[in-house]
Amino acid sequence: MPDANSSGQRPPTGSSEPGSVHTLLGAHGTRIVLSGDVDVAMSSDLTDAVTEAEHAAKPVEVDARHVTFMDSSGIALLARLASRTPGRLALIQPPDVVRFLLEVTRIGDLVDVVETDPGFEIGSRLTTRAVPPEDIA
Question: Domain spanning 20-131 has what CATH number?
Answer without folding.
Answer: 3.30.750.24
